[in-house]
Amino acid sequence: MQKEIQHLAGEDFCYLTTIGRRSGKAHTIEIWFSLNDATLYLLSGGRDKADWVKNIYQQPSVQVRLGSITYMGRARVLAAGDEDELARQIVFAKYAPRSTDDLTEWSRASLAVAIDLLNEVK
User: For residue 37, which of 2, 49, 88, 97 is within the disulfide window of CB 3.0 to 4.6 Å?
Assistant: First the structure.
C-alpha cells in the first residue's frame, strides 16, 4: 500500500474521523499530517486534552481521508522514542516552510500520534 499512497503525501491536510467517546458519533477534523510509508503522523498541540486524542484512547479505529481517498486506520499515541522523534521531525519539516509562525515549540511540545493505514474504504 505504501507506494500507492505516497502521491498523497503532499496534500495540505488530511481529514481524521474518530468515534466520539461519549456520543458514539463520528467526528471529523481537518489536521496537518505527514506520511511515512503506510503510517500517517499527526501532532496534537492540545496534547491529550484534544477531543480527537481522547476519542482515540477510547477507540483507536479511525478513518483518514487523503485527497478523495478514505482509509481505515489504527491510531497510536506515541511514547518518547525514535518513532516519536520521527513524527515530530517530518511534520515540522513539511509545515515549517509554509507557515508564517515559528513552529519549533509546537513541534517539541505537541503529542505525537501515529495512524497505521490499513486499507482503502470502497
Answer: 2
